[in-house]
Amino acid sequence: MFPVLLLLFIVVPIIEIALFVQLGGFLGLWPTIALVLVTAIVGASLVRSQGIATLMSVQSRLQQGELPAQQIVEGVMLAVAGVLLLTPGFMTDALGMMVLLPAPRAMLAKQLMSRVKVQNMGSGFSAGFGSQGFGSQGPFEQQDDPFRQRSSEGDVFDGEFERKDEQKENDTDRRLH
């Protein structure tokens, strides 16, 4: 985790600053600033249009009774692309545009989905990395659940009861004094 944070918060800004200096020296200050603003505006509008198209695709798949896993992954990737495009910098803009384009996004989504195991289990699903997911049981299932009925524990008796002594005390409290 530390190398990822180091990369995100130290290495990426250093590369972005170096690119700003290089491009600013070549184009000038104002064209460089204008280019950063234009990529942010264009990127935001493209993310919006692609996001709407992905949302419509998710709704269509759900209406057909299918699990729209790839569309959901692509939706998350569009959100990441939006963050990358709104972050000032040319390297993050290039990465955001790459994720924003439909063909690379679909290919990257398929790669991500091949690494994640999703099991459809009737009323829910469990997802995780590896062959067994996060465990051999569902994420909300506990090994020692006292309310889960086990056939090896014997018969279950269902009944009602009423305590007579509490009933008498409650009757005396109801009288007006």
From TrEMBL:
Keywords carried by this UniProt record: Membrane, Transmembrane, Transmembrane helix
Biased amino acid composition, Basic and acidic residues: 160-177
Region (Disordered): 135-177
One Gene Ontology CC term in the entry: membrane
Claim: Transmembrane helix is one of the keywords in the record: yes
Transmembrane segments: 6-27, 34-56, 76-101
Domain of life: Bacteria
Protein name: FxsA protein
Lineage of the organism: Bacteria, Pseudomonadati, Pseudomonadota, Gammaproteobacteria, Vibrionales
